[in-house]
Design brief:
Elements: E1 9-21, H1 25-30, E2 36-48, E3 52-56, H2 63-70, E4 78-83, E5 86-87, H3 93-99, E6 103-106, H4 110-113, H5 120-130, H6 136-149, H7 166-178, E7 184-188, H8 196-213, E8 216-221, H9 224-230, E9 233-238, E10 241-247, H10 248-251, H11 258-265, H12 314-329, H13 398-409, H14 418-432, H15 436-446, H16 450-453, E11 454-455, E12 459-462, E13 465-467, E14 493-494
Parallel strand pairs: 3-8, 3-9, 6-7, 7-8
Antiparallel strand pairs: 1-2, 1-4, 4-5, 9-10, 10-13, 11-14, 12-13
């Protein structure tokens, strides 16, 4: 791996986008109801000679699509990829084939990328044939040399792919990539399917080959331990975009993007007594067909920036946002309460004044004594005599329903901000009346984070270290944890918001 940054980049990627048409059926196309999957949505990076760039992120974030777009194995929708100053996206098929001698790819699944009808010798020799680099005895000698270079035996040339182990097949794929003497190799999850001991062997092989031949790598992985071990620089990808990038030591030490922080917290320690204190990201990754407005991570971010007009701690704001998002997507009120569709409550809230929805001696609403539950009333829908409880949570009294909603989302009662408490109360009233759309619209209008309204640019927090998070904007006030006095973030444009 290189120590310095000097020199012109061997590979430069500018604004690459790769979108797929996911429109279903002829009728949708006829009516113009198109659906575009924004797998990669505006990515920039540079790669210098002898350097390793690690690209990391969850499955489905667009890493592999980016890797294949860079080498035009998948045609990018927009943007440019420059190799030694020449735009690969503008090359003809013939010119691109010739350029592939300098740009090679190691696939994630070595078995599926190897032709089962070819011997190992033919697999490695095929690039030599395609590019006219060697024939006859010279070709055979070159194949044997390549097999030895990656730790295989020359006698292995007569074997077929299924006769090799997983690690040996990956070595075979690396030998094939080396056959044309490339400058850049893109390694797509090169060790994800291998045992830990074999992973170390392959990673060490890649490092040795880099030192010997001056190769530049783009390594795609979801395992940060692999990325930390092999990379000079790291780019963290989420939903088609880079959210953080910089030198490895800077990305793995504070400050972090909240997503990077969550990924790092999931790395297990080599300690049998380690119990883990990882950051749990609630919810699922949003669809790349319709990515969220503002910061794409705001729907899951544990450090969401609260709106300045409310005096609420970050964890309460996160809970309110979860309630809002769930209400906007929910098919029914049952999914918003700590009660299953069968009517079984999820548990009791903490506190001396808490109401147990299954306790017949507990008042459902301390302000409404007429709504107290009689333990002798056989018609009481929440009586323990009824083992299943109410089929619909909106059938319980308003006080009990309030408890169930707050319990589901971890909301205190009351909220520390009076205006926020009033808005939540109105929303719970609407939910109790089964007016879920009205409740969602109310919450969406009242609780709007700056993260929902502004798409963050990449803020520089150090030498060659950028983080796309509003918390690193100059206008963010660490003391109050938001943008004071309604100040707008600098360097970011407002996007379609929920206001």
């Amino acid at each position: 791996m290189r120590d310095g940054d000097a020199g012109e980049p061997v590979l430069r990627v500018e604004g690459v986008e790769t979108h797929y048409d996911a429109t279903d059926g002829f009728l949708d196309r006829l009516l113009g109801r198109s659906r575009r999957v924004r797998a990669v949505d505006g990515v920039d990076f540079e790669l210098r000679e002898g350097e390793t760039l690690g690209v990391v992120g969850e499955s489905g974030c667009g890493k592999t699509t980016l890797a294949r777009s860079v080498l035009r194995l998948v045609e990018p929708t927009a943007g440019s990829v420059y190799h030694r100053g020449e735009d690969l996206t503008a090359l003809s098929s013939a010119a691109l084939r010739d350029r592939r001698k300098d740009l090679q790819y190691v696939f994630q699944d070595p078995l599926s990328s190897l032709d089962p009808r070819l011997t190992a010798g033919d697999v490695v020799g095929e690039p030599l044939d395609v590019h006219g680099l060697a024939t006859g005895a010279e070709r055979d000698a070159r194949v044997r040399e390549l097999l030895e270079t990656v730790g295989l035996k020359p006698s292995h040339a007569a074997r077929y792919p299924h006769e090799f182990s997983g690690g040996q097949r990956q070595r075979l794929g690396i030998a094939r990539a080396l056959a044309v003497d490339p400058e850049v190799i893109v390694c797509d999850e090169p060790v994800s399917a291998l045992d830990a001991s074999v992973q170390a062997q392959i990673l060490n092989l890649l490092a040795d080959l880099q030192a010997e031949f001056g190769l530049a790598y783009v390594v795609i992985a979801h395992d940060l331990r692999v990325i930390e071990h092999v990379s000079d620089r790291v780019a963290v990808m989420y939903l088609g975009e880079f959210v953080e990038r910089g030198p490895t030591e800077a990305v793995f030490d504070p400050p972090y993007h909240p997503y990077t922080e969550a990924l790092l917290s999931a790395i297990p320690e080599p300690d049998p007594l380690w119990e883990g204190d990882g950051i749990r990201l609630e919810g699922t990754v949003p669809s790349p067909v319709d990515p969220p407005s503002g910061c794409r991570f705001h729907t899951r971010c544990p450090r969401l920036v609260p709106a300045a007009e409310y005096d609420l701690p970050g964890e309460v704001w996160r809970s309110l946002t979860d309630l809002k998002l769930r209400a906007m997507e929910a098919d029914g009120v049952a999914s918003l309460t700590a009660v299953s569709p069968s009517g079984e409550a999820g548990g009791s809230p903490a506190g001396d004044d808490a109401v147990d929805p299954l306790d017949p001696t507990s008042p459902t609403d301390p302000t409404s004594p007429d709504d107290s539950i009689s333990p002798d009333d056989p018609t009481d829908s929440t009586s323990p005599a009824d083992s299943t409880g109410p089929a619909d949570p909106t059938e319980v009294p308003r006080g009990t329903f309030d408890v169930l909603v707050r319990e589901e989302f971890g909301l205190p009662e009351p909220l520390p901000d009076a205006d926020a408490e009033a808005a939540v109360g109105d929303a719970i009233d609407a939910l109790h009346d089964d007016r879920i759309e009205e409740a969602a619209e109310l919450l969406d209008a009242v609780f709007v984070s700056p993260c929902e309204r502004h798409h963050p640019t990449e803020y520089q927090v150090g030498t060659d270290h950028g983080i796309a998070c509003l918390r690193y904007d100059d206008g963010f006030d660490e003391e109050i944890g938001t943008f004071a006095d309604g100040a707008e973030p600098t360097g970011s444009e407002p996007t379609g918001s929920a206001e």
